[in-house]
Specification:
- The protein is built from twelve helices and ten strands.
- It is an alpha+beta fold.
- The protein has two domains: 50 residues; 236 residues, Aminoglycoside 3'-phosphotransferase, Chain: A, domain 2, CATH 3.90.1200.10.
- A five-stranded antiparallel β-sheet has the order 1-2-3-5-4, covered by helices on one side. Strands 6-8-9 form a three-stranded antiparallel β-sheet. A two-stranded antiparallel sheet has the order 7-10.
- α4 packs parallel to α10, α7 crosses α10 and α10 runs antiparallel to α11.
- The longest helix is centred in the C-terminal third of the chain and has 21 residues.
- It is globular.
- The N and C termini lie far apart (47 Å).
Amino acid sequence: MSISIELVQYIFDFFQIKEEILSVKAYGKWQLNYTFLITCTNNKRYILQKINTLFNIAWVMKNIDTIHNHLLKKQAEGLWDNGYKILTPIKNEKGENYVEFEDNSWRIYDYIEDTLTQDYVYYSFQAEKVGELIGQFHLCLSDLEGKLYNPLPWFHNTPNYYKNFQEAIKNTKVSKRDYQIEKWIESQKSSIDYFFHLIETKQIQVRTTHNDTKANNILFDKNTWNPVVIIDWDTISNELPLWVDIGDMCRSMCSNTLEEWDDFALVDFREDIFESLMKGYLKKGNDFLTEIEKKHIVFSVWFIIFELSMRFYTDYLDGNKYFIVRYPLQNLEKAKKLYFLWKSFEGKKELLQKIIDKYI
């Protein structure tokens, strides 16, 4: 997707941004939102995003405002580390933080200078710091009052994902299907039922969750490599348990390969990175996690790896309608990579539980 200077200028005018636009470049790896880096005079830079229409956009932006204000309050109280940044959407004089133009919705953030994103966590010290950041994020949001909007009511609804998977199989030609993946997904139905029984019976409580805590939703200081902010707040809600964030953090960062990887024999779950993540996270998490939440940390990682693989595979069968792909088999390859990551994880569950026991 490309964007014209004229459209960017229209959006700048809406937000009363006065700098002259020098360049507009595509930015990052697009999965849901199209993102651009805008460079202006005086070296001022902004992030411009076209917000995916899958979301209820008004709800997303109200949630972002709520989280932003709550973290500012925590920062003033000394509970949000001043070394961490807070995602800040630009507003106009009326307090509006997004603009609609020709059936599309756009928003702008200040670009956070001297940071970078990573698809891969290389070092244990980074992983420990990421765990601390996400643990601090959860701790600060644990007393958020009032209900957030749920911009994606079906998000992380695994029983519904399973139904979608079953429907996709029925509607797909035999030649397109992967029976190894399908057999595996079908064999995990009882685990889906078990986990959601814990939620429905309120044995595991719902909390405020980010819902997409993958590696490239963290910005790192480009000099120290320490994490400074968690970004992409579009999916935040308070209708899911913390296992969603803990599981996805570990799913994303403990793999020894990138998400897009086709040599599946090499895929391995890195227990050293897992230990560092948990060591960092539980420095904060031990203050607010319940005993049953701690008991299910390992299971939550196992579960999220499975859930995302099922989602990638279903989207592949459905014609790649949800995730942005660069080629037709990309979602299938992602699903298979996660299947092999799950196999590696499955063989290390007892070791990983011993790691958790060390820090709780």
